[in-house]
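Quick one, tokens below:
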């Protein structure tokens, strides 16, 4: 049985492609850190996440600040934010994931949970 030529080509080029990807940085579609957590759009996304969570849960959390954030380009953009919030006098950190399609003016809260 003769080896398939495509397998031989893949065996040669796959290691080269993988090495090139390592030098260029993260893969397209991967999570990228947000450089400016004080950007007004990032704060708007965080406020949206807290507001949507409050509507669904009946809680009254108040956003204090964005502690950490990442974005992921998909068919739109996902924001994964760690936010410092207050519930009455108790402070806690929550992670929220928001999906936004800015050209359609739509946002959706995908998840919101307390983190330690």
């Amino acid at each position: 049985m003769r080896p398939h030529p495509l397998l031989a080509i893949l065996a040669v080029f796959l290691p080269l492609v993988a090495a090139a990807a390592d030098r260029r940085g993260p893969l397209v579609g991967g999570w990228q850190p947000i450089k400016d957590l004080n950007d007004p759009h990032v704060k708007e996304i965080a406020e949206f996440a807290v507001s949507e969570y409050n509507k669904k849960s009946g809680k009254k959390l108040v956003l204090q600040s964005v502690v950490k954030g990442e974005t992921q380009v998909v068919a739109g953009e996902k924001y994964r934010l760690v936010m410092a919030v207050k519930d009455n006098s108790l402070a806690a950190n929550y992670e929220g994931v928001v999906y936004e399609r800015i050209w359609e003016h739509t946002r959706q809260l995908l998840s919101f949970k307390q983190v330690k």
